[in-house]
Amino acid sequence: MTDPNYQVYHGVDFTATKRYSNRWQAAVALTIQDNPNFFPAGSATFINPTGQEFRDGVSTISKYLFKAQGSYTFPWDISASANFNFNQGATRTLTINGPGAVPGGTSGTITYNTLENTSRDTFRFDAVKLFDMGVQKVFRFRGGKNRLRLMLDGFNILNQNTIQSYASNNQSLPGFTQPATIVAPRVFRFGASVQF
To answer: Which end of the chain, N or C, is surrounded by fewer C-beta atoms within 10 Å?
Structure first.
C-alpha cells in the first residue's frame, strides 16, 4: 500500500530589483512559507499513534526568509558591495527520556527510549542574521590591456554567534543546554587577480 503521508507547501515571494545604472544596483527578496505535514490513518510512520499530535499539521521549515544585496561603483575603479540574509531560526524537536520497553505491539513490547512532549514547531532557534561586505580596487596597465584587481571581503561583519544546534534535544540529558554548532565568526579575506 502506498504510504498516505503528505505535505502541503504554501508560499509567496516578493522581489524588487534595481538594474545597474548611475553607478549602483540592488535587489531585495522576501519569502513567506510553510509546509505542514500530515499523517492520515494507515501511515507507516504512526502505526502506533504515540506522539502523532506533535507532528500532524506541523510545519518545521523557516517561515520567513529575507535577502538584500547591492553594490556601488565609486570613482577610481573602486566598487563596494553588501549582502544581508535573515532566516527564521530552525525548529528544535524536544524529547524526554521514555519508559523503555512497555507491553504492547505485535511483538508483545514497544520500546520508548525517548518521547516527544510538545509540538515540533513550539521551539525555534534565534533567527540567523548575516551581513557581508566587499571592496574591490582595479589598477589598469598598458592602456587597460592588463588589470590588477585587489579584493577585501568581510563575512558575518556583525559577528553574530547564533546557536544552531545543541549536543542533545533530550531535556533529560545534560547536553540539552550544551551548544554544539554556532554561526561561524567574523572572517576577512584578502585576494588579488591579474588579467593580461
So the answer is: N
Three-state DSSP at 175 gives helix
How far apart (Å, rounded) are the C-alpha atoms in residues 128 and 58? Answer: 21
d(CA 106, CA 35): 33
Classify residue 1: in a domain, yes or no: no
Give CA–CA dist 151/132, Å, rounded.
14
β-bridge mates for residue 163, sequence order: 182
- What is the count of structural domains for the chain? 1
In a domain, 140, yes or no: yes
- pLDDT tens digits along 88-116: 999 999 999 988 877 776 667 877 888 89
CA distance 146 to 144: 5
Q: Which residues pair with 84 in a beta bridge?
A: 68, 131
Encode 146-176: b = buried (16+ Cβ within 10 Å), e = exposed. Answer: eeeeeeeeebbbeebebeeebebbbeebeeb
Residues 39-97 have pLDDT tens digits of 998 888 887 788 899 999 999 999 999 999 999 999 988 999 999 999 999 999 999 99
pTM exceeding 0.70: yes
Domain interval for residue 65: 6-195
